[in-house]
Amino acid sequence: MKIPLRHSMMSRSSARLFRPARHICSSSGAKRALGTSIPKAATPATSPSPSPPTNPEGGEARPRRPLTKEEREFLSSALRVNQAGELAATLIYTAQTPLVTRSDPHLKPLMKHMYDQEVGHFDTFNSLIAKHRVRPTAMYPLWSVLSAGLGWGTAMMGREAAMACTEAVETEIGDHYNGQIRSLLEMADRMERGGGGMGPELKELVGTLRRIRDEELEHLDHAVEHDAKKAEPHWLLTGFIRLGCKGAIYASERV
Amino acid sequence: MHPPTPSSGALRRLGTQRWTTAAKTSRQCAAIHMTTRATVPSTKQTLPSHAVRAAVAAPSSPTLPTVTQTAQRRTFHSTDHPPPPGPFGATESALLAAAYQHVPEHGFSSAALAFGARDAGFPDISTSVLPDGEFGLIRWHLELRKAELAGRAEEMFVGEGKGKEYKIPEKIEMLIWERLTGNKEVIGQWQQALAIMASPTNVPVSIKHLAELADEIVYLSGDKAVDPSWYSSRAGVSAIYASTELFMTSDKSEGFTDTRQFLRRRMEEARGVKGALGNVGQWVGFSAMGALNVARSWGVRV
Ligand SMILES: [Fe+2]
Ligand SMILES: [Fe+2]
Question: Residues of the signal sequence (chain B) (predicted)?
Answer without folding.
Answer: none
